Amino acid sequence: MLDAIIDRVGDWNPQLFRELKGQLKPRGLIIVGFISFVLQLLLYLIFASQVSKDPQISSIYITSENGVRTVNWALWSGDIFVTLSFFAIFILLPIGTYLLTANLAKEARKGTLNFVRMSPQSALDILIGKMLGVPALLYWGFAIAFPFHFAFGIGAGIPFYRVLGFELILVAACAFFYSIALLVGLLPFENNTRSSLPWLVGLITLIYLIFIQGSIFSNGSFEGVFNILYLFHPGFYLKSIAANTSPFMFSRTGQIGWYTIDLTTASNFLLLFGLANFTLWIYWFAQALKRRFHDVKKPLWSKSQSYCISASFMVINLGFALSHLPDYNRHRLQLLALQQILYFLVAMGLIIAISPLREQVQIWSLHRPQYRRGMASLIFDEKSPAVLAVGINGAILYAGVVVYAIAAAWLPTSPSDRNLFLLGTTLACLVISWILIVLIASVYQILLLNKSRRRAVLAKSGLLGMVFLVPLAIFFAFISSDLQPMLAWLFTPFALFTVREVNLVEIIFAFVSQSLAIAAVTINTHNSIRRLGASEAQVLLNQNASTGLKP
Amino acid sequence: MKTSLPVTQRDQHLLYPDADQYAIATYGLTKQFERYIAVNEIDLQVKAGEVYGLIGPNGAGKTTLIRMLAAAEEPTTGAIFINGERLLRDDSNPKLKQRLGYLPDDYPLYHDLNVWDYLDYFARLYRLRQPHRRRRVYEVLELVQLTNKKDSLISTLSRGMKQRLSLARTIVHEPILLLLDEPVSGLDPIARMQFREIIKVLQEAGMTILISSHVLSDLAELCTSVGIMEMGFLVESASLKELYRRLARQQIVISTLGALDDLKTELRNFSLAREWETLPGQNSLRVEFSGSPDESAELLKALVTAGLPINEFHCTQEDLESIFLKLGHKQAS
After folding, report:
1. Low-confidence ranges of chain A (pLDDT < 50)
2. Which of A180, A319, A437, B80 could form a disulfide with A259 if both were Cys (CB 3.0 to 4.6 A apart)?
3. How would you classify residue A22: left for phi > 0, otherwise alpha for psi between -120 and 50, otherwise beta?
4. How far is B43 from chain A (nearest CA, A)?
């Protein structure tokens, strides 16, 4: 019967057929089914002991009035529902990401994926097959627990459609995290790095889940700055639908807003918004997977796609930021600076994702006439250097900070609170920070054009050094000094923290020096690319001359 | 090369007018790794139904060329056409991929599957539907003589069986173009012979086959055309007949029961017998002969008429390996 089911599934997706054939053996199914059943039974027994008829036992589920003990079954069911949900979140996501990365790492090591790539199946069909098939035993374990989970959700008094909505969120979260795991599995790592990669991916997923879950429990909302991180954690949605039915598990204080909507109370909207958000990011990661499946050296996204990604991120994150509109006091300025840091980090991610490798720039440089002309080529052609594209992405992302800063400066009810001078300084610091993004992109690109075989590592190290080491060096150099060098901080991602202390001369100096640095790096990059094109032609000529052969 | 600017059907026809006349046609195909050019502006044409042998020393670029033809490697520049259709390395040409079969030299397999499931999986990947799929898997299992192993785990097969299973995977979807990279390397003589026989069957079935190998005697037996690669260049590409006609010298081995000096004296009277060498340990000469078959018959008649006790007289031709070495290439055999 199992073979017949796999056979039918295989007609729909051959990759799923292959994975199920490898994973679903009767013995494995029986063991996983047994473990799932025993865990559910244990959970039930633990909770059942809390509502024992023994009058000696008291628990949060039992109220005693005039000697009559009443069990709050809705509360009891709600807590079982939430506990099972946590099991699902903390097992499905880290283990699933581990399994998928390990599977692709193994295929890459053995070279078997190449045959699959050559087949007429689309990249997405293959990767969906992997996503559904590799963690098949995990799914089987949770499929057995699904009726139990669903029934306790309904038993807790949570509406049917909200329980279903949460299940869908769980599915979407799996698809989202698994897409990232597949993408990591497709990255061109050395074989010895590949062996540790699955553990790393699983661990990072687990750390993210624990860290954000802690914040959800403690009701910390990062004051609007990093709220976007909640959107990828199913626990956030769980809190929204189960806070009323499991009040002892979730605190109900605090508020998380998005533009004018209070997400903590609008459960239905949050579920739909969560599904839409997951769909959007799954779509972008699917685009990267499609590109990387056939060519592991391609930039993750094309330049055009990167602009849409920046805009998507900016619009979603701005909604959280604007719902926590700061006044221009010191604390709020720090929040504004944290917002800018978040966007800065996204821009750094995009630098790594869209910068073309040396070979691609070489092709672009050699076949310049076949590409778009002038600036259009730098903005849209994916083999052209990515500095200008990163600049555009930085501008799109920082537009969110500008809107946020203007709103914060303009909207306070009391006109005396409006501080246009500080707004001006903020915008000036933002421009300097934007120039730093472009400078880092230029340095990253020129390091990628380097002749060294380790140039990709070199470029990433250079980027990390500029983002983290420079601020750390400044911090430790002046740790015991009362006087902080504001000018030096303007050359780091933390430029906006200096808004109150920095003066006009320092801003102008930072602006001019960074612009000069960009000009110097740009000239250098231009010359490197010219040399690269010329050297390739030279290689061809030399090879022809040395062999005495003519193509 | 795939650029950001679309090449229209009309442009394509203008740029590559004869592309649709060949099963494989490449134009300026180049692959560069760092500062090393593995394949250098190759224009290769292989007609439908041919068995094309690719020979050359290690590092000549054969594997890279075949990988590009199989869409396993992105060309740095140049274009590939398979039966007149442009081959690109993305999701855009599933029909074209359906026509290609590629067997690399390392043939990685899934060891957790059994033989049947492995072939069934690839048949599904290539969209074969039931009942044709089941029939086809049986057919290829019979062809590669693995029917009795259909339920065995791949990990339990011998090297030769794994090689044959890989060939079965390569042809299960009935491709019309086969790309075989060193398919017999590491096989024992019997497995090699079995493999050769399978290739002959596929050739008779009308497949176009491009095969690279260091075993030139195999290629001489199988191929209709040969290409020689060296340092990334395709330095020779011709039909085997043409190659023999141009480069192979006719030789006659003559043995005598009498003195070799008498034979040599008599041969000096024939201008078509240009030079000769004594075969060690035998009373024979290998004679370079540039005449026609009629003229060789004349030579035999003259030798017998001269009273020489000739006990062996047979014509041979230089083999592919000799031709290759004569061209100045260092082919490992």
Report:
1. 547-551
2. A319
3. alpha
4. 8
